[in-house]
Amino acid sequence: MAAYLTSESLPYANILALVVLPLLVTYAVTAVGNWGYRNGDASREPPRVPYWIPVLGNTFGFAYNTEKFLASVISKFQKVPLRIFVGAEQMYYIPQGKPILELFKASRHLTTHSLNVMTLRDAFGVPIPDVKLYIGDKSGVTAKPAAGFEDADPAHRFHFIEHRDLQTLLSGSSLNVMTNNFIRLYTKSIETDARFATGDWVEIDNLYTWMRDDIAYAALESFCGEKFLELSPTFMEDFWAFDHILPKLFKRLPRWLIPSCYETRDKAFASVLRFHNYMRENLLMTDEETLAKEWTPEFGSRLITARQKLLQTTGFSPEGAAALDLGLIWALNANAIPAALWMLLNILVDPDLKDRVITEMGPAFQEGSLSFDLEKLCSGPLLTSIYCETLRLRVAAPVGRTSTIPDLKFGRWQFKEDVCMLSTSWYGGRDPDFWNTGRTLPDGSVEHPVDTFWAERFLRYSDDPASGPVRKPVVNPTHSSDTGKRTVDEDRKARAVTDGTHGYWYPYGGGYNMCPGRHFAKQELMVSVALVLRAYEIEIVDLESAARVKPNMEYFPFGTIPPKGKIATRIRRRKL
Ligand code: HEM
């Protein structure tokens, strides 16, 4: 080796050493503390994902290939919590299984502030003084103020009131009004859609946008009333354009680098501000009678008017309040609507499944009509299993927390105060050690791998001990035939279950901050898919390529991942 080192090559060797040595040292320093993390009982901070370049840390892998980066480190460290260094800041990743369940259990010591602040500031454009107001309320989300904040003015406890209103006004009788409005509006848009008036086939270039627009319009109106779109007729288009550029805004690039993205957001924001200004001018916050109404065409649902009162009372600027509500409208639409498309698409690409779903939902509908019994429809086992399976496979919504106490502990892991903890159900939903994947085929592969859709994954058939979502030690399924296909009769006797999947199936997050919109979302998804199947005959132009449509991973991990590419279809109204 020494024979190759001449006096000319020495400077190069020195330069190389100067470059390589710090990288090696950084890697060694960041890896050495991980020794023994799998063994022993002593509490410790989670292992650190080693990196080569100081300051940069794990930023590159995390920011530019988040899905693969996290998949690889979760698997390498065998599903324990991890410490990641991103954007010059520490962060914890909490994986599926016991760690995420323990995180949810520790709710009383956690806030969602760090992820929420990033989202509100970077994605929705909440001005900095309003962000300060948002984080300034440290009295917590429970009725009893957090220790040290016992004297907080009850009317200014923003997080408590917001949390309480979201939970109560998205459940019970308020939820019923909201869902009924959604059903009324969505049914009306189907019935009055002039494109299908003649009963002839109509070519639609993209099933997703076709379905998306009608659901979004009905959902928006059931939340915000009729006035919103009257004031801003192009909002729905502007909203989806905003949704499209949202992943770029999360990258925190300045306005001068991506001006068109900011302009797109400005447009969607301007509509919410217009509606807020209308409310400020026309809805007196002392008008208890109007504020008590579950829904009015002018101001929308009680959730929206109660929020308006809260935003005004707690001193948010008109711009801050509108940006916060742009966030709420995004939460309303951006996760549920792509999920509805995936549900419908998976049904349409399998003619046998489509027939079984139509048979199952038939008795919920009134003869010759689009009217139905909601409870009956939403209790159909096959449609429920399709709903659960779709969320398992397509949701990558972020779950973010930070500890409010020094050295929070769960299991043997210790977490520092104020360091962001991140999780997403994407990996738990695809954990091959956990999920039932059906029969083992003669070539040794499994019948329903975790990255594929299996309509019956969440169904438990009483005569088949191997059925149900969770992998069983002995897999010996008893299917009605050797094709593995189920019959309508079997569906009827099956039960859709999520028992035992907690910690692996958490599309709505968990603990105290679990998604408050989950009840509405489930009804919205089941109803919209059922209504579309009831009202229309839909033929996918190229079944094979539609079955291969991939998720658009640019959206990872911001929510339900929408499909990438268009799905051409022919649609005609059914004669009911
Ligand atoms: C399939 C549809 C949906 C999915 C997968 C989903 C998922 C999630 C997730 C994972 C969270 C974070 C929960 C946590 O941190 O533990 C969340 C929060 C939230 N979701 Fe949903 N969501 C959906 C539909 C909806 C709908 C229809 C609404 C209606 C307004 C909604 C409103 C919200 C709100 C307001 C929050 C923030 C709650 C808080 O900060 O306390 N979501 N959602």
TrEMBL record:
- Alphabetic keyword roster: Heme, Iron, Membrane, Metal-binding, Monooxygenase, Oxidoreductase, Transmembrane, Transmembrane helix
Entry superkingdom: Eukaryota
Q: What cofactors are annotated for this protein?
A: heme
The transmembrane segments are 12-37, 49-66
A Pfam family the protein falls into:
p450
Keyword Mitochondrion tagged: no
Record bears the keyword Transmembrane = yes
Which PANTHER family does the record associate with it?
A: 24-HYDROXYCHOLESTEROL 7-ALPHA-HYDROXYLASE, CYTOCHROME P450 FAMILY 7
* Family to which this protein belongs: Belongs to the cytochrome P450 family.
Protein known as? Cytochrome P450
Record the organism.
Answer: Bionectria ochroleuca (Gliocladium roseum)
